[in-house]
Amino acid sequence: MALVGAALKLFLSLLLWLNSLTSSQGKENLWEYRYPFIRRASSFSSSSSSTSSNGPEKSYDYIIVGGGTAGCPLATTLSQNYSVLLLERGGAPFANVNVSFMQNFHISLADTSPKSASQTFISTDGVFNSRARVLGGGTCINAGFYTRASTSYVSKAGWDSKLVNESYPWIEKQIVHRPDLAPWQSAFRDSLLEVGVSPFNGFTYDHIYGTKIGGTIFDRFGRRHTAAELLASANPEKLNVIIHATVQKIVFDTTGKKPKAVGVIFKDENGNQHHAILSKRWRSEIIVSCGAIGSPQLLLLSGIGPKADLKKLNISVVFDNKFVGKGMSDNPLNTVFVPTKKPVKQSLIQAVGITKKGVYIEASSGFGQSLDSIRCNHGLVSAEIGQLSTIPPKRRTQEAIIAYRRSKRHLPHEAFRGGFIIEKIAYPLSTGQLSLLNTNVDDNPSVTFNYFSHPYDLQRCVDGIRVVEKIVSSRHFTNYTQCDKKTLENLLNMSVQANVNLIPKHTNDTQSLEQWCRDTVVTIWHYHGGCHVGKVVSPNYKVHGVHRLRVIDGSTFRESPGTNPQGTVMMMGRYMGVKILRQRLGKSSGI
């Protein structure tokens, strides 16, 4: 029976691989039959397009900018009753093998080509980071862990708990799975309990103190299921999804007492501009769901932001708001690399420890074992030996970065055996800001997170590393790794080399845990803020100072929900979609 199961798994994996391979070679895309409403931006007809007809312009009840983690469930929900245009700057994820398979997780993040699903940016802090550029957003490039927010978070956000508890299962039934626990994760779970991160809460989506196994958007075959798949539940007669559509600005009618959003200007994959028109019907809206980098960036490009900053770039001021782009925050991540004597099975986040010290402890192991794997920047599961950070800041040229990556080709594969114990600061108090460098929407804005600028964040990092020390020295973990017990100092030295950032290292890293935290900080891509509730948007996410414009995504968060935010961001899209429909149609509609 076990042999039959293994054969079936191999057969299904082969079918998935062949389907992805044929799709990537330009043959018939099977996903087009399931999502007939998805098309390229160059096919869009509008008044500013050379292909537009002389007939009346088509308008939409809702224009959603950003087909990501929040945008896809939001568009799906609103399409049940109204016409929706969803504009996404990236392509479709369904035939992209780097998105679809867990074994290629690191390759997608390392791909810096213009068509990559991931767009790299480096914060002014010197930390490498990524933003999604694909339909499905961050759910296409993340580590897949799924959890809900805590009940206290929901209450603090002012959300309707009943509707929240109806919205989460809508997501979970479609794309969330229970993980098959990898050996590294089993040893990590047992070690968490051994060192006192208790109780054991079993498999649960709930965010509660102790050790638990969470959900994942990877199925048992290692296939990723993204927010883009939620579009399958949409009304195909009322939804239009346009990919490779890069929105350059929101258009406003400024003739009234208050500016009113009336449409957007976007460019297609060929660089041609198009104009999408918002319906004049009552309560029609443009909704920005571009994420914590893209949403404040688009507001600024559209004339909503600090007046002085906008004028420097010759952007016409629609509404002067000094808070746009402020309050940016990223949960700092520090990792300890634990070597093993033999290769370990790849795993991303499955088991987590939710401590009362204000830190979360997670783990990952292994990598895709292809010959090209060693040349990649593996991000979260990085085990590169060498420090780009040894290059002085003024000499960090593109050539120097390329030379650094080239040097990694000669690293032995043994350097990639093992995995990481990860500690992430919950609810960091350190904040920064985002500002435009130019008016090109394709370019990353300047982003600063000010990691560990608040002393409490630094203290929590030290507390977290001390928990990690206990874990790697625990009986369960040393039995699994079959390595001699390493002193914390040796492990920290390895991890200084394994973490890749542009922060100059100090020779006394292992003598001062505070310094080690500062020098080895990386990201787990849970950055948020820039369009805070009360500062940039109302509690209903309507943008201050203008009509018919909302922001619905993680840029409105002051804190990142749960150990990993993707579940709550998807829930938020569904939640606000239902709420908007109820407000427009009335509760008697049964929505």
The strands making up the biggest β-sheet line up spatially as 8-9-20-21-22-19-25
Q: Number of helical runs?
A: 16
Which residue ranges are poorly predicted, with pLDDT under 50 across at least 5 consecutive positions?
Answer: 1-28, 47-53, 373-396
Question: Could you describe the largest sheet, including whether it forms a barrel?
Answer: 7 strands, mixed
User: Quick one: overall form?
Assistant: globular
CA-CA gap between termini:
46 Å
Strand content: 15-25%
Give the structural class: alpha/beta
The helical percent reads 25-40%
- Overall pLDDT metric: 85
Give Rg in angstroms: 24 Å
Strand tally, please?
A: 26
What does this structure look like?
This protein has 16 helices and 26 strands. The strands form seven sheets. A seven-stranded mixed beta sheet has the order 8-9-20-21-22-19-25. It starts with a helix and ends in a 6-residue tail after the last helix. The model is unreliable at 1-28, 47-53 and 373-396 (pLDDT under 50). α7 (161-175) crosses α16, α8 packs antiparallel against α13 (475-481) and α12 crosses α15. The protein is an alpha/beta fold and 591 residues long. The chain is 29% helix and 19% strand.
